[in-house]
Amino acid sequence: MSPLRTVLLTLLLPFVACSSNQDSPATLQPPPDTGQIVTDMDGMWVIDGIARVDSADPVPGPDPMALTFLSIQEGQGISIVDGRAFDLTGGQPLYATWNPTVPNDRYENVADGRFWRFVIEHFDSRDCVTDLSIQAAFGTRDADTLDGFVAVRYLSSCPAPLVVRPNPNGMFAVVLKRVVPATLGR
């Protein structure tokens, strides 16, 4: 087991074990003892560490076609601007629109300097069924580090888009590191 996985599991597993008894990932909360530091969250953040906390299955492997959190992997990034996370490739709020013809059932994307909470829930059942839920809850560890949890559920009877690899599902402890400062580009 990698040292990062050992540290993440040691620090975060008791919290996940307590919260995993809930029926819905809607109760996903940031790890305890995060959010005590206030920082300007604007800037670019990348996934610097991942540990699966729901099973002994491996973390999804590198895939250059993957979308942010779908499937989750080190090196994926987001940009936070004015309290909202944006996709690095499209420059749009992260998953604000999953399917342009069907609005999301629920969407939340808020960063307040101590916490970043992200929720997308999308259900589509015209010709085939797609059920997507990505929930993330992060809190500051320091000015340039966010610790959090990401829960992914993607089920579909539709032909899978190339960017959704088999089984992106799971609950993960994740570390985000700032790689571009908040003041760059202002």
The SS-based structural class is mainly beta
Helix content: under 10%
Low-confidence stretches: 1-25
In DSSP terms (H or I, runs of 4 or more residues), the helix count works out at 1
Largest sheet, if any? 8 strands, antiparallel
Order of helices and strands: HEEEEEEEE
Oligomer: single chain
What is the tally of beta strands? 8
N-to-C CA distance: 41 Å
Principal-axis shape: globular
* Cα-atom radius of gyration: 16 Å
Instruction: Give average pLDDT, whole number.
Output: 83
Proportion of residues in β-strands? 35-45%
Arrangement of strands in the largest sheet: 3-2-1-8-7-6-5-4
Break the fold down into its secondary structure elements and pairings.
Layout: H1 3-19, E1 43-52, E2 77-81, E3 84-87, E4 106-111, E5 115-124, E6 130-142, E7 145-156, E8 170-180
Antiparallel strand pairs: 1-2, 1-8, 2-3, 4-5, 5-6, 6-7, 7-8
Describe the structure.
Helix content is 9%, strand content 38%. The model is unreliable at 1-25 (pLDDT under 50). It has 186 residues and is mainly beta. It is built from one helix and eight strands.
